[in-house]
Design a protein that fits this description.
The chain is an alpha/beta fold. It has helices at about 5-15, 60-70, 85-90, 110-125, 175-190, 200-205, 220-225, 240-250, 265-280, 280-285, 300-325, and strands spanning about 20-30, 40-45, 50, 75-80, 100-105, 130-135, 140-145, 155, 160-165, 170-175, 190-195, 210-215, 230-235, 255-260, 290. Helices cover about 40% and strands about 25% of the residues. Strands 12-11-10-13-14-15 form a six-stranded parallel β-sheet, sandwiched between helices. Strand 10, helix 5 (about 175-190) and strand 11 (about 190-195) form a beta-alpha-beta unit.
């Protein structure tokens, strides 16, 4: 899940603690082109204010209009946006897309507040849960996710299952001009970004809004258990004193992407060094993208950072596609 979904849960908790009734929306499925994948979240209050995204604008407007007009008064209802050609044109859905959304109207009681707290902790933690919603009764609960893979959303005649896991996280091992641009791009792409660097001068010069900075050796942070399967770990300093220990610790995690900056020649030398002094084997080395990033001929720091973030997104989308093979596709 994206870091935007963390922001949705944080706002939902804030409003629920203030006693606000919430409209909690989950994208169930998409047909055609859609900017937000299944599992994406949006929360709104009775005033029509909202946080999150369903489509990038057009569906949100239709949803808020229906909310303000009092048309979304059921505990749970599923709405298909763009199902007709006329509606698709009116909502400006791209490529004739159709978006199915579960909309829950939830009063701010103790049960709902606890449920939101559990979901929020899951996005920030390490374990995966499944959220189970029964539209007919409006009931909901969570259970541990025992599946190693599978579609994010499954819907049948009586129940909806939504897999909830840690939000996408990028750990940057050390600060550099490339790392600064990388933090900016990744944050805009929906990642939770954490930068680790014990050097005071570098931390003082680093200023990227929305990015967490840790005064710690990157390798120590990585070894502390602060990563999960939705984490990318990248070292972009050209300083082997920071980069090499970070890679040694990174391959001991279940991070889905590990990379370090350097030329082909530097990368070959680093691989030998990591085997010799770090105790890594060929399987460990194969997990490390070095040189890091897509080969787009990048030279300037911003271009290198763009190539890095693009490759991380590519790897994550490939992993997600493998988890939702055609034989696992949810029923409409």
């Amino acid at each position: 899940m994206h870091h935007m979904d963390v922001q949705v849960l944080e706002k939902a908790l804030e409003w629920a603690r203030e006693g606000e009734t919430l409209w909690f929306c989950t994208v169930l499925s998409t047909w055609g082109s859609s900017p937000r994948p299944p599992g994406s979240l949006l929360v709104a209050c009775a005033r029509g204010e909202y946080v999150g995204s369903l489509s990038g604008g057009c569906v949100e407007e239709a949803f808020i209009t229906a909310l303000v007009d009092g048309l979304l008064d059921k505990p749970v209802q599923c709405v298909d946006y763009g199902a007709s050609q006329e509606e698709g044109q009116r909502l400006h859905l791209p490529c004739g897309g159709v978006l199915r959304v579960m909309i829950e109207r939830r009063p701010a009681d103790a049960e709902w507040l606890t449920h939101l707290e559990v979901l929020h902790a899951t996005l920030l933690g390490q374990r995966r849960l499944v959220r189970l919603v029964t539209p007919a009764s409006g009931r909901y609960r969570v259970e541990l996710d025992e599946q190693a893979s599978g579609p994010v959303v499954e819907e049948d005649a009586t129940r909806i299952r939504v897999r909830v896991g840690p939000a996408l996280r990028l750990v940057l091992a050390g600060i550099s001009p490339v790392a600064t641009f990388c933090a900016q791009f990744a944050h805009l792409a929906g990642f939770e970004v954490i930068v680790c660097d014990p050097r005071e001068a570098e931390r003082r010069a680093f200023d990227v809004p929305g990015v967490e900075v840790q005064n710690v050796l990157p390798a120590l942070f990585i070894a502390s258990g602060a990563t999960h399967g939705a984490t990318a770990i990248v070292a972009l300093t050209h300083d082997p004193r920071l980069d090499d220990p970070s890679m040694i610790e990174a391959v001991r995690t279940d991070a889905f992407y590990i990379g370090v900056m350097g030329s082909l020649r530097t990368s070959r030398a680093r691989a030998e060094r990591l085997k010799r002094s770090g105790g890594l084997d060929d399987e460990d080395i194969a997990r490390i993208h070095m040189p890091v990033g897509l080969d787009i001929g990048s030279k300037a720091p911003a271009e290198i950072a763009l190539a890095v973030v693009a490759d991380i997104v590519r790897a994550f989308r490939a992993l997600a596609a493998d988890e939702t093979r055609p034989d696992d596709v949810l029923s409409a």
